[in-house]
Request: fold
Amino acid sequence: MISDAAYSEDYVEYIIEYNGDREALMDLYQPYGLNIIDDRYAVAYQPFPAGYMESFSRLEYNLFPKVYGLMDDVGALEAIGVINIQQENILGLTGKGILLGIVDTGIDIFGSSFVRDGGKTKILAAWDQTVEEADNASYGYGREYSTEEIQAAVDERQRILTDTTGHGSFCAGTAVSVAPSADLVVVKLKQAKENLRSFYGIPSDANAYSEVDIMTAIAYLLEQQKKLRMPMSILVTLGTNSGSHTGAGALDKYINNIGDLQGFAVSAAGGNEGRAGHHYSGIVTGAYDVVEIDVADHNSFTLEIWGKSTNTYSVAIEIPGGEFIERISPRYDRSSIIRPIFGGGMIYVDYFLVEDSAGQELIMLRFITPANGIWRIRVYGVGTTELSFNAWLPISSFVSPGTRFVSSDPGVTITSPAVAETAICTCAYDHSNGNLYIDNSRGYTADGRVKPDLLAPGVNIRGEGAGGETVIRSGTSVAASYTAGCSAIMLEWSYGRKMIRNINGNQIRGYLIRGAVRPGSSGGLLEIRQYPNPEWGYGLLNIYNTFESLRNV
Reply:
């Protein structure tokens, strides 16, 4: 039943926060199919409802899965200090007895990074969500593989878990370069369905993944960790601009909880949105503030405006060509639908005066094939506190390169789920010259927490892609992969060497921050920056310095 609903466009899925009461969940939603992720979250599958596009306002914002994309663009081990750590005469830590949990686009099971000497696979379990005809998976869709099945596929040169983009193979291989003795558990994500893409205006050809599938993928990793009884370092290389950027989303909260569990660490890519022009910060100082968006290529997209819950915000719209839509009053039962006379297209406007998770006001505008040109969104505010707000456009892979805010703010562009507090949020730098990666997202979070935590090498990194081909990639996905490998090293030191028992991901985050190299902070004339800061976080990842700091305590 779930296998049908997971792939068919005739069904939609909702993320339900049910707090462990399954009977109430069944009574309230009467789902066609149900997947329990944990005692807090479940996924309910329902037949595609009439008025799906207009149903936003009468339902909760977080019921609708967000859509995530890959966080990359088309000497590093020495830079992060891992070469010394791997040497037997120093610490000899290589990730032995530790699991790397990979949630990505698949993996090349024949890659040299994933097969030990003698041809033994390092992949102990895997779930391919894209295989529709199978029904043996724990969550009712896709195909699971045991160690024996994966080994047989390696021996017989049978292609499974194929990685057409090479992204998953590259990032997993990067993490393994740090922790070469680690074993792997892999999830190949399926692409988001067309009905969800249409809801958010995401192109059909974009690599896009549903929050539902990412959460069930991570739940699968946790299941395998319990079976194998080995600590796990999880790598999440996906991100989205949807949400309040405060860590209040369902995936953010789920990952935040995992970071507090003993024997786990989660590394997340901070995003490549710093110079994309997709964030605007505003304050209503007169009658209204004007948010200008340069729209190109008639591409559909979403705009989210988040304001303080102490105030009330509303919008009016100036459409290219001179048409003006007067201030739109909030509606709670359905979307307000605007059909411009000139230029065609359609706009859905939804108000959430107190969004259920972030506790802020959210105004969401969904532009369907809008006219090209400068759109002006008038933001009105009423209240007794500062009338500030943030607005975000989708991540770069979900919108035309020419669509951007006319006056953008590169700050507060760390993507979800890297904004989760216990996630080790990593952005990138060029280890060959010490410069920041030009497309890095920048902190802090919208609620003022320090992110990114660290920078790691992520510019022109050479590695193995699908099919064994050597490729070069840049982006925060690559940087987060190095952090995931270092987290595996810390887990081995804690559990394998029994140095600090019961370490969790948040502690590992703290240890890595403590050992970070902070260039330009030496004092005197050479002091050019203070830490933490929104661009460099707490500094550059260096696992050797982390152990040096422990030795010198």
Summary: The radius of gyration is 23 Å. The longest strand covers residues 373-382. The mean pLDDT is 90.
